[in-house]
Amino acid sequence: MQIEAFSELFPLLTAANPETLEWLLSVAVEHEYPANRAVLMEDAWGNAVYFVVSGWVKVRRLSGSGEDVVTLAVLGRGDFFGEMAILDESPRSTDVIALSAVKLISISAQRFIQTLFKDPQLHHRMLQLMVRRLRQTNLRFQLRHQPPAVKLANTLVALGENYGQDSQQGVEIFNIPFKDLADVTDIGVEETAKIMEKLDSKGWIKIDAASHTVCLVNLKQLTHLAGKV
């Protein structure tokens, strides 16, 4: 991967200087995983920072017995994970699973921390993105009493804004399983299925099971439903 492409793909790296980008690329390790494969197990948190080159992953919270599994977040192209575990040495009870075929690059914890000390702009940018994630978490808390359709619209719009790919019909995202979509939105699975079917029948979205995509056809209406305008 070229330095320019590396910087453009990952918002975290837009503020990094060329020397930092060159160094990160030189120590990066590439990974590829098929759908449903564990990408990062709970005992591996804190070893590296991972960047999503392509595909979709989910972060899950595990119970002690492993029977109660809740999806905490869905991440796509251009995002990263593992950065907080580098700073927080407490035991982890989460793992990361590939929702689709996924390509990642990883940078070891030690080397990434060294880079943060050398490049204050990168350090500042990472703090900005972590604050943005905190605000998104706060938004979910603020929406807890909103109708399920409003909450789901917020999730779809956020996924489209953060990871969507423009197409002739609209903005395409991965066709996330209803259970994972429900967990992230904090509503029931049956509610999620009914709302998605209704949005599809209204023509606001188009679910294409064959290509594993959901096209946000009428992003303006979804944004309005989400209460963002």
From TrEMBL:
Q: Which residues form the Cyclic nucleotide-binding domain?
A: 12-133
Highest taxon of the lineage: Bacteria
| Gene3D superfamilies hit by this protein | Jelly Rolls, Winged helix-like DNA-binding domain superfamily/Winged helix DNA-binding domain
For this protein, the record's CDD domains field holds: CAP_ED (cd00038)
* Pfam families for this protein: cNMP_binding
In alphabetical order, the GO MF annotations are: DNA-binding transcription factor activity
GO CC: one term? cytosol
Q: What InterPro entries has UniProt attached to this entry? A: cNMP-bd_dom, cNMP-bd_dom_sf, Env_Response_Regulators, RmlC-like_jellyroll, WH-like_DNA-bd_sf, WH_DNA-bd_sf
The name of this protein is Transcriptional regulator
Origin species: Stenomitos frigidus ULC18
